[in-house]
Amino acid sequence: MKKSKLIFVAGLGTMFESFDFYLFSLFAIQLNYSFFGSVNKHSVLWIFIIFAVGYLARISGALIFGYWGDKIGRLYSFKKTIVIMALSSIAIAFIPSYQSIGLFAVVFLITLRFIQGISFGGELSGAVIVIVENFKKRRALSIMCISIMASIGLLLANFIYTELTYYLSHQDMMNYGWRVAYVFGGLALFHSYNARKDIAESDEFKLCLKRYEYKNSIKVVFKDYKILLLLGILSLMGVQLYWGTIFLYFPQYIQSSTYLNISISSINYTATIGLVFGYVIGACVAELTSIKLTYTLFTIASLVMIISVYLIITNTHFSVEYIYFLVLVLSLFQGACGVLCLLMMAERFPLRYRYSLLAIAFALSAFLFVGIPPFIFSYFTRESSMYIPMLVLGIGYFIQLIAVQIFYKKTAIEV
Q1: Which residue intervals of 72-102 are DSSP H helices?
Q2: Which of 138, 165, 210, 408 has its CA 20 to 30 A from that of 316?
Q3: Helix (H, G, I), strand (E, B) or coil at 399
Q4: Please, are residues 105 and 35 in contact by the beta-carbon 8 Å criterion?
């Protein structure tokens, strides 16, 4: 398979994973109406709890697909994730409402989100590993292409949300508008599966299978590599908290704010554009210098930026244009870090247990720093303040900065 096609195929699943990820935030109020029977001022709280369940399930998925990916083959896991993801997405669209079957609607939603989360647990890690093990050069630029495809998934979700809101009435959106989006995402994923049938294992991994005896990857990860795993999780802390804070919680803050006259779609388009530019800048700088230096510099830049963003979005004297500008810049810095985070670990984790280490580190960090924070922010701040979210995000970038330096010292090969 040509390398350009390999990048595209690897990125398709990531694109629609981002699509689904963002749907749950965009349609939080509609989902709450369908599965809890009413909408109130704390409506997103329960939806974010179910959202966190999906991220908890990612840990199970990381253990399962990481185990298969290291023992049987990368592509065995990589092909299975996309089928589970597609079927569960479509199934969510056809769950009867709370008004029809009562609490069973909630049970079905939680179950399908858990199944969906299992598939997500091995998806992005598999895509990154496929690139790392098939490309000897220009890895950062290759991962940049996959990251841009992920942003296309966000833009696509935002576009569908905007169009459905425009053409459907408020009640129609509550009743079935969100279901249309989930059906679209699920059907699109089947195309990704067909495209992956032609991918072959890398020569590097085939040689590894012959040369090294396999031991249970789950036991090895938590026994022999637990410090490395912890450093990997903390090295993702700021990057992951950005998604939980800016992409998931901030839209709900906008909706409940008494003075911010900003549409959710416009602020998210702005953030996504910033991410895309950040992916390009981060990948190019990393190719010219090093991943470690680039990741460190943009983590520091993000940390400094947090202070400005918080002061602007919580001060009624600043104009909306300032908020757009600062979200754009913060997202650019985030993109420059985000395009490199998994690549950094995939290159430095030991080859024999790379899939398990990367998938588990990513899944645990996603659960802790993406899945849980929106619920905590909604519960403690009641969707009316950005003080706690921005403080937590700032702390996350600081810990990430320290963890990355230690991570590089603990790994044997200097990149």
Answers
A1: 74-93, 98-101
A2: 165
A3: helix
A4: yes
Backbone angles phi, psi at 41, to 5 degrees: -70, -15
> How many whole angstroms separate alpha carbon 34 and alpha carbon 158?
20
Q: Say how many CA atoms lie within 13 Å of 117 toward its Cβ.
A: 27
- For 95-131, write each residue's pLDDT tens digit: 998 888 888 888 898 898 888 888 888 888 888 998 8
CA 80 to CA 193: how far, in whole Å? 8
Q: What is the pLDDT of residue 298?
A: 96
Task: Confirm if 146 and 11 have CB atoms less than 8 A apart.
Answer: yes
Give the integer Cα–Cα distance in Å for 124 and 150: 10
Collapsing DSSP states into helix, strand and coil, what is residue 21? helix
In angstroms, the Cα distances linking 359 to 118, 127, 139 are 11, 11, 19
| Distances 168 to 151, 164, 165, 172, 178 between C-alpha atoms, Å | 25, 6, 6, 6, 11
Q: What is the pTM of this model?
A: 0.85
Query: Per the structure block, which two tokens stand in for 175?
Result: 């009743």
Q: What share of the chain is helix, strand, coil (3-state, %, to 5)?
A: 85, 0, 15
> What does the alpha-carbon distance between residue 368 and residue 52 come to, in Å, rounded to a whole number?
9
Q: State residue 275's pLDDT score.
A: 93
Q: Which domains does the chain have, with CATH numbers?
A: 3-410 (1.20.1250.20)
Q: Give the H/E segment covering residue 25.
A: helix 3-26
Asked if 246 and 20 count as a contact pair (C-beta separation under 8 A), the reply is no
pLDDT in tens, 260-287: 667 777 887 888 899 999 999 999 999 9
Cα separation, 131 vs 140, in Å, equals 10
Rg (CA), the chain: 20
